[in-house]
Amino acid sequence: MTAAWGVVGGDSEGPLDAPFPWASVTKPATALAVLVAVDEGTLALDTEVGPPGATVRHLLAHASGLDFDTAAVRAAPGTRRIYSNTGYEVLADALATAADMPFERYLREAVLEPLAMTATSLDGSPAAGLVGPLGDLLRLAAELRSPTLAATSMREVAFSGLDGVLPGFGPQSPNDWGLGCEVRGTKSPHWTGARNSPATFGHFGAAGSFLWVDPVADVAACYLGDRPFGDWARVEWPALSDRLLAS
């Protein structure tokens, strides 16, 4: 297994410049592009997009009711947390239409280039298609830790109290998410460590990738690898997170 991990402004291990698939860790970058568009007035959080009654805000927070990977609607907007790749693809299409340019170009000009993430590119879905090195992922983590590109925070819970399933970790009550990132809260089990505060927010991906920011500890950490998410990650990721926070 080849892997790389690092802390923003701190230690790292493994190849910083080797490209890895980010899988769903793509979503915070896509969400950041949407929030830049909101600041610019290209979109609004309350713009209606997707299923009837759903908005940009619902889609960002996995509260639109859309299915994981189809166009089926499984719940009314704002009633349940249903993790949805489809929702992020709908968001990207809406942004492309509003900005009158391909989503990939908007993402590159609004997020990747300003953050000097020049070795990262979108190869597939806006929900899971970024490929890039750990160095670039650490730059994204640094932005989430201390935002400069968008005024709206991803760390605040949106539609508080919604129940749902955290992929890979089962039903959670509540299953808190912000606008683009999962918020740790009181979830158990979880992919971050026992030392991570409830305020920790971030994302993990099926390709064996994670990004988290703990604002209480003021630490941001990332992991990329070539081993898909599985039982190993449920054990090793929390242990790695605890080691990073302890040090």
Quick structural overview:
This protein has 247 residues and is of the alpha+beta class. The chain is 30% helix and 16% strand. It has a single domain (3-246), classed as DD-peptidase/beta-lactamase superfamily (Beta-lactamase, 3-Layer(aba) Sandwich).
Topology:
Elements: E1 3-7, E2 12-13, E3 20-21, H1 26-40, H2 56-60, H3 85-99, H4 103-112, E4 121-122, E5 130-132, H5 134-145, E6 164-166, E7 170-172, E8 182-183, E9 201-205, E10 209-214, E11 219-225, H6 231-246
Antiparallel strand pairs: 1-2, 1-11, 3-5, 4-5, 6-7, 8-9, 9-10, 10-11
Helix pairs in contact: 1-3, 1-4
Write up this protein.
The model has no long low-confidence stretch (mean pLDDT 97). The chain has six helices and eleven strands. The protein is globular. A six-stranded antiparallel beta sheet has the order 2-1-11-10-9-8, with helices on both faces. Strands 3-5-4 form a three-stranded antiparallel beta sheet, covered by helices on one side. A two-stranded antiparallel ribbon has the order 6-7. Helix 1 (26-40) runs parallel beside helix 3 and helix 1 packs across helix 4. The chain has a single domain (3-246), classed as 3-Layer(aba) Sandwich (Beta-lactamase), CATH 3.40.710. A hairpin with a 3-residue loop joins strand 6 and strand 7. The protein is α+β, with helices and mostly antiparallel strands and 247 residues long. The protein has helices spanning 26-40, 56-60, 85-99, 103-112, 134-145, 231-246; strands at 3-7, 12-13, 20-21, 121-122, 130-132, 164-166, 170-172, 182-183, 201-205, 209-214, 219-225.
